């Protein structure tokens, strides 16, 4: 009888432990997001019409927001990282690729790339991007404070611009927040394309 009571005691004590372990096992699922952009390939017949090259030389982002996790701002102004809402690839890489894709669509006579060719066969413009701030407000807006410099092949600055872009977020879903960042990059791309067209016309 003493043995039966002893085992009963052990079983009862183990129940809270098993419940705790079960709770730890049910973790939230990580979700990954990427920036959307225009995807257009130039047919071989148009290759001869290319007049210049645009090299996206660099994209700089403050360390505080250049993280795999979403960094969001709450109504109190406090910033926090969302461990389970993540960018699929480094943010500077995604911005460069999205910008390149959008510019290819806007500038038909330009070869746009993020990788420099060893020997450029076309006149080259260089583009440097610097993100000053990216505020993600779930369910409200995505705010992009950004500057850019267009340089010639010898790295002489031809244009310096700055823009504050605010895009509303369509819903509280984090996918909608990522979509708003994509829209902000599209607006940025349009502004840069206007700059480059003006340079080519001058």
TrEMBL record:
Keywords: Signal
Signal peptide: 1-19
Annotated ABC-type transport auxiliary lipoprotein component domain residues: 33-193
Transmembrane domains' residue ranges: none
Name of the protein in its database record: Membrane integrity-associated transporter subunit PqiC
A Pfam family matched in the record: ABC_trans_aux
InterPro entries per record: ABC_trans_aux
Keyword Amino-acid biosynthesis assigned: no
Keyword Signal: yes
